[in-house]
């Protein structure tokens, strides 16, 4: 039980009760949802800026809650992280993304890599490489079709992160840095990390036309990445103006509502099919 403050409710309020209750409920629901398979993946296309061809997809998780409908990852990923449920959940995400990707390839669709978000907990798992390797074998997906997205917060321990990333790279898969520019140690590690791609965070792209500082940051990230031999993708591109700007400064790819929101597997399949027929 919670200690009470002097006035009796300082540290313990009905609101807190509700919060704890809903968190507890969420944890139990999550546990059950993993068992019952209530999760689905949607796929957002990543397109090459000059040609507008789909060159990749990002797998994004959705929870089909029996009572609450579609729950977005922002609501349950933090709780999954806290409770450790993120480990089995993320394992499912990687397996499902690989399985789906291989199925599209076997169907004769143009092969494109799928990108999966790694959680902090997952990144810290000592046997991550072995688990990923096992999934690639199980799903028969060639490693170059899997990309793992990490965030800067995972790279605080540079030595650990470098070693972990090297092991993953040895499998032959790709690594990207998600939400680039929002973390701490961006420049310090970039030169030693085996990273293929930088994803410019949506917050910089959003104000590119109005805020000269954001525009300068975006141009700098593009130039720097290219000097380091990395591909750059801009997240959250919503307008033609943003696209024109990014094209002018040589950004390689975009992901955003301007081209497409995340799509169901069926819808993404249709897109890929119609591109192949073009
Ligand atoms: P993220 O990795 O930065 O993913 C991009 C988010 O931006 C997605 O939200 C996507 O739907 C949204 N988005 C894409 N284009 C636009 C745009 O043009 N405008 C705006 N306003 N938003 C756009 P979503 O799917 O709700 O995912 C939110 C976050 O949840 C992700 O951010 C990621 O950090 C996390 N997440 C999603 N799926 C997974 C997963 O399978 N595992 C883990 N560990 N995290 C995940
Ligand atoms: Ca991501
Ligand atoms: Ca992102
Ligand atoms: Ca984000």
UniProtKB/TrEMBL annotation:
<protein>
    <submittedName>
        <fullName>EAL domain-containing protein</fullName>
    </submittedName>
</protein>
<feature type="domain" description="EAL">
    <location>
        <begin position="23"/>
        <end position="276"/>
    </location>
</feature>
